Amino acid sequence: MRLATIRTATGLRAVRIDEEAGRAVETGDADVRALLEHEDWSERAATAAGPVHDLAGLDYAPLVPTPEKIICVGLNYRDHVAEMGNELPTHPTLFAKYAPSLIGAYDDIVLPPESQAVDWEVELTIVIGRSVRRADATTALAAIAGYTVLNDVSMRDYQNRTKQFLQGKTWESSTPLGPWLVTKDELPAPDGTGLAVSTVLDGETVQNSTTDQLVFGVAELVGYVSTIVTLNPGDVIATGTPGGVGHARKPPRYLTDGATVVTTIAGVGELRNTCRAEKS
């Protein structure tokens, strides 16, 4: 099953995506987070019979417009760790984003005038479907509603001002999330392993890896984060990016005004965004 949050003339709506029928069916909830807050969210979505929208031309909002928590994991692909000249971490590297950074799957990425080093990072992203604290591996996997795609657009010059990543990671209108949530049963493996991960920049493939390169898997990440804080429905955990980022290239390469970036997780979804310089 695939779920999304769309923009309509009367506001945001959570929908079930019926690809074969070419339609999206409203679930009766304002967005995907509101849907997931129902304990029976899966049945509610599967049996939804609300207003119907044509699949073509849907205006996708960020999958979860206002998550309680956006947790990101750094240095979590072996090939990316190697290209950055680091050693494999012994614990997950965590940082956060805030909701104003999020945009829809096909919205423009805003390039702020303050940064000259805006980078791309395709990431398999966990969406939490039930509250969980101090989860073991089985409970952690059960708490995952499904997966989506996030492009962890990073302002490297700000990120590297200090050892803390946040200031380079949460600029407004910079982070595409979506287009939809794909439930675990739709994938070859419920833990998201074996999925191709790629970024194409202006027609050139710049990232090409698989989720088998993850240092810490999805259940391990949910268990680790839930030890620190309760995870709630609609929370998202971006699991890290593979090798091929612009900052590691020689010379470095960054996003520019007018560039098109396509970030894809096979079987999960695709983000397609144009970069636009912020208008004063």
General description of the model:
The chain is mainly beta. The chain has 2 domains: 59 residues, no CATH class; 214 residues, Fumarylacetoacetate hydrolase, domain 2, CATH 3.90.850.10. It has 6 helices and 18 strands. Strands 1, 2, 3, 4, 5, 6, 7, 10, 11, 13 and 16 form an 11-stranded mixed beta sheet that branches. A hairpin with a 2-residue loop joins β14 and β15. The protein is globular. The model has no long low-confidence stretch (mean pLDDT 97).
Question: What is the makeup of the main sheet?
Answer: 11 strands, mixed
Rounded average pLDDT:
97
CATH architecture of the largest domain: Alpha-Beta Complex
> Overall 3D geometry?
globular
CATH superfamily of the largest domain: Fumarylacetoacetase-like, C-terminal domain
Concise structural overview:
This protein is mainly β and 280 residues long. The protein is built from six helices and 18 strands.
Layout of strands and helices, then pairs:
Layout: E1 2-8, E2 11-18, E3 23-26, H1 32-36, H2 41-46, E4 52-54, E5 70-74, H3 78-83, E6 93-97, E7 102-103, E8 109-111, E9 118-119, E10 122-128, H4 137-142, E11 144-151, E12 154-155, H5 156-159, E13 175-183, E14 196-201, E15 204-210, H6 218-228, E16 236-238, E17 260-265, E18 269-277
Parallel strand pairs: 5-16, 7-13, 8-18
Antiparallel strand pairs: 1-2, 1-13, 2-3, 3-4, 5-6, 9-12, 10-11, 10-16, 11-13, 14-15, 14-17, 17-18
